[in-house]
Specification:
The complex is a heterodimer. Chain A is of the alpha+beta class. Chain A is 36% helix and 24% strand. The longest helix of chain A is centred in the N-terminal third of the chain and has 39 residues. Classes of the chains: A alpha+beta, B mainly alpha.
């Protein structure tokens, strides 16, 4: 009744349809153009996603454990079952201690990296992976309350992980290097050749716009050039895996294996300061070597 | 009153389908019940309510997927309008028709997402057509008739009336 009074019946559907389409397009163009501050609804949803991940993972682990127990124990004699239960309990304890031990090593490496890095950093734990198969992102348990904001670089002990895409109060979404939307200004450490490292999903990353005359070899290290304004100079990003030169192409086809395996990331550091700290003018690449050596001789 | 409840039920639906996708398919295949809900709205809900449903579900999906706000909003509103247009010419009761139509809409959604990414960022996601979007469209098609029946029964999107006649 109200709608009929406000809008002429003849044009009502066309007006409503135009309103929704124009609003959707405006939202899309506004958000595609630049990295905007997420709204309160979006922030609340991001908080919910991390809570949801925790809720989903709990029964999933329970189901997996129950299935394993069933497979191991079915059809066995009572004594044997008791012994196996004892054994399973002991194994679970060992796994728990080993997990704690490995976590200790990882955190030791991270701490070493944090201490040697000339920037102010914030340690974070990975609490979720993006549910979509086409976007390569992770969710970490640090947000605006910890000084984390969109655009900040995220690193791990082996090298660059990605950058913060959006941050809510207590969690943030990280765009991984391997996401196809990720582009980083880089430099090949050995030949000092500049290029753009673009994500290539399961294929790792591709180093683009490198001239055919540039000397690039398999095994060369790719580091951040410091020119993009996001990543400080000297952060390791990956190693050249394959190099291809074709007569018809202007540039070389270079595939790069990222330093950090996105599937294995558990803890990260977010570089929260824009300027280098007073202790060093720029990042030393041996910082990562020192961090890696902190747990030298220990098996992962 | 039903407009106030729409965001709440929309949010619940997106949470449910995200949980289902992760628990059953470990995030490898998207279970998009929300897309079927938008198509259903195009066929059976009043115009204003249907368009609002598409808008709200699209917005929450954008938030949960980490996509730029407006990407799924635009896709859903467009799919709603297409469904509305088709509903004026076809009586959607046969399961085979629902299957094909939902599958085509899911494919259209995928193509829209890929085209917008290509236009806006120059990122080519077209190679995902075979490994992501086509399985997604097939699964959405299979899900369609079952979800239509479910929406008819629970009448969540209606005011308690028979939704099959509400939008006509």
């Amino acid at each position: 009744m109200g709608q009929e009074m406000l809008l002429p019946k003849k044009y009502r559907i066309a007006i409503i349809a135009s309103f929704f389409i124009i609003t959707a397009l405006l939202m899309l163009f506004f958000n595609l153009g630049h990295m905007s501050e997420p709204g309160i609804l979006r922030k609340m949803s991001l908080e919910m996603v991390s809570s949801l991940e925790t809720v989903i993972n709990a029964p999933l682990t329970g189901i997996k454990d129950a299935w394993k127990r069933y497979i191991f124990l079915v059809g066995l004699e009572a004594e044997n079952r008791l012994l196996k239960e004892k054994n399973a309990r002991a194994a679970a304890e060992i796994i728990k201690y080993r997990e704690g031990y490995l976590e200790g090593i990882r955190l030791q490496k991270l701490l070493k990296l944090q201490e040697t890095m000339p920037f102010s950093t914030q340690a974070a734990r990975v609490v979720g992976r993006n549910p979509s198969p086409i976007f390569k992102m992770i969710i970490i348990n640090r947000g605006e309350a910890d000084g984390v904001r969109a655009g900040l670089p995220v690193v791990a002990t082996a090298g660059v992980v990605g950058r913060i895409l959006e941050a809510s109060w207590h969690v943030s979404r990280v765009l991984l290097l391997t996401d196809e939307n990720s582009n980083v200004d880089v430099m090949v450490q050995e030949s000092r050749v500049l290029g753009i490292l673009q994500g290539a999903a399961s294929a790792g990353c591709n180093l683009k716009y490198v001239s055919k005359t540039a000397a690039i070899a398999v095994g060369d290290t790719v580091i951040s050039s410091g020119m993009g304004g996001i990543f400080p100079k000297g952060l390791p990003l990956g190693v050249v895996k394959t190099v291809g030169k074709k007569e018809a192409d202007l540039f070389q086809k270079i595939n790069v294996a990222p330093s950090v395996d996105p599937a294995m990331i558990e803890e990260v550091l977010v570089i929260v300061s824009d300027q280098p700290a007073a202790t060093g003018a720029c990042l030393r690449t041996d910082t990562y070597r020192q961090a890696a050596q902190a747990g030298k001789g220990e098996k992962r | 009153m039903s407009y106030l409840l729409l965001p709440f039920f929309g949010f619940l639906l997106i949470v449910f389908q995200t949980a289902l996708s992760e628990l059953v398919f470990f995030g490898k295949l998207a279970v998009e019940i929300s897309l079927v809900a938008v198509i259903y709205a195009g066929f059976y809900l009043p115009f204003m309510k249907g368009a609002a449903t598409g808008f709200i579900l699209g917005f929450f999906l954008d938030c949960f997927m980490g996509a730029p706000s407006g990407l799924f909003v635009f896709s859903y509103v467009l799919i709603f309008l297409i469904s509305r247009f088709v509903s004026r010419r076809v009586y959607a009761e046969r399961a085979s028709f629902i299957m094909i139509f939902v599958g085509l809409c899911a494919l259209l959604e995928g193509l829209l997402v890929m085209a917008i990414y290509k236009l806006a960022y120059g990122v080519d996601k077209f190679h995902h057509l075979w490994d992501v979007f086509l399985p997604h469209a097939l699964f959405a098609g299979l899900l369609g008739p079952w979800a239509f029946k479910l929406f008819h029964k629970i009448g969540v999107l209606s005011d308690g009336r028979n939704t099959r006649t509400a939008g006509r």
